[in-house]
């Protein structure tokens, strides 16, 4: 049986959640469970989630809004040995579970994520996607070189991050006080337990933020936020440059 619990934090994701849940229903092998943790959606997100509710797909309501809090709540309810954190607007390959289990079969690996290809209805954001791929490597090399050579790679939300449940709990999970770059913060904690690996497989994430900002502005904001984060600027300050676009 699969060991993977997939956790999806949601907030007003009615436009994409149904597609994502349909994709998860055809995974081979299937996930042990899918936990949808909603932060108070005001659209049809919760209704859509309940339509898919089953013995392996559960809907959880979070009293507190915020990805870190919602993902921690999902992790607390999860029964799998492995946790996979998935954004509602991200498409995954059918063998997602197998790739995750194979990656963590290496005991020297504490966590991992995928290569994110940013796509929209009419275009693929090759330039932005390439930068995000490279950022996984150059950000830790520049700002945490001692950890880079220990195996640190900085993963971000749309890369479908995964790790062992025990390592997640022992690392303290996501910091609820961090409103942005919470996955990167978790990488800093997980690398104390093993390498972080970006697997050579692609997931597709919505380009909705880039579509609103434009490629140049989006890349500039990503660079600015990443640079300030590397210098230790608080996530609370950085969040104001990364407004909600839904």
UniProtKB/TrEMBL annotation:
Instruction: Tell me the keywords, alphabetical order.
Output: Cell membrane, Glycosyltransferase, Membrane, Transferase, Transmembrane, Transmembrane helix
| Compartments in which it is found | Cell membrane
Q: What is its main location?
A: membrane
Q: What are the Glycosyltransferase 2-like domain coordinates in residue numbering?
A: 5-122
In what pathway does it function? Carotenoid biosynthesis; staphyloxanthin biosynthesis; staphyloxanthin from farnesyl diphosphate: step 4/5
* Pfam families in UniProt: Glycos_transf_2 (PF00535)
> Which InterPro entries does the UniProt entry name for this protein?
Glyco_trans_2-like, Nucleotide-diphossugar_trans, Trfase_2_rSAM/seldom_assoc
Q: Where are the transmembrane segments?
A: 221-238
- State the Gene3D superfamilies in the record: Spore Coat Polysaccharide Biosynthesis Protein SpsA, Chain A
Looking at the keywords, is NADP present?
no
What the record says about family reads: Belongs to the glycosyltransferase 2 family. CrtQ subfamily.
Q: What does the function comment of this entry state? A: Catalyzes the glycosylation of 4,4'-diaponeurosporenoate, i.e. the esterification of glucose at the C1'' position with the carboxyl group of 4,4'-diaponeurosporenic acid, to form glycosyl-4,4'-diaponeurosporenoate. This is a step in the biosynthesis of staphyloxanthin, an orange pigment present in most staphylococci strains.
Name of the protein in its database record = 4,4'-diaponeurosporenoate glycosyltransferase
